[in-house]
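Lab notebook page, bench 4
Experiment: in silico fold of construct C2
Operator: M.H.
Input chain length: 209 residues
Purpose: comparison with the prior construct
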Amino acid sequence: MCDCGCNTCETKQPLMMINESLAPKQILSEGLKYHMDNNKPLTEHLYRAGSTNYFNLFAEARSLYSRGILDITNTDDLALLKETNLGHFGILNDKKVPLDFPIELEESLNEAKKKKKNTKKLNKPMRDSSGGKAYKVYVKDPKTGNIKTVRFGSGGLKAKINNKKARDAFAARHKCSTKNDKTKASYWSCRLPRYAKLLGLKSSFSGFW
């Protein structure tokens, strides 16, 4: 009902009111006071979405509303305060992330997935029969700074790492004492016994072949 009684003009209902019998208006932050004084919904905030002030605004409004200090009539604002946790934070992969804030949360998830995908243990040989080889190892190429996959070892022959005569012959034939480039298969083939445990091989010898 409008003040003049004509029922044709519109009156603007207060979107936000504070119960001053419970708390004085002075407890409101500058941002929340702005919304009350200008009768603006929280959804028309002045802050950049995702900023500290943005999250603090919704956290403050929810806290006061839940305690009965703040009365809110705007349906969109009520939905945000009652049905979401906007303004609060959680922990995802040891990182603090905002709750119910899709853009930031999606970025955090993508970042976590990318980090997990790119996490490779360097210089740790492992079994892998791809490419016709028995093993593979991830190394960092000093020339490019990129991670490189090095495949080595015969996929069809059994390593004779416990046979001294075979080891000596292999080392001499491949000049193992001169192999110092980790980006080359020969480096890892020459040091196969050293990584026997990682590869599921039985050996007490830890030097070259």
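Observations: The beta strands are 16-18, 70-72, 89-92, 95-98, 126-127, 133-140, 147-154. The longest strand covers residues 133-140.
Next step: discuss at group meeting.
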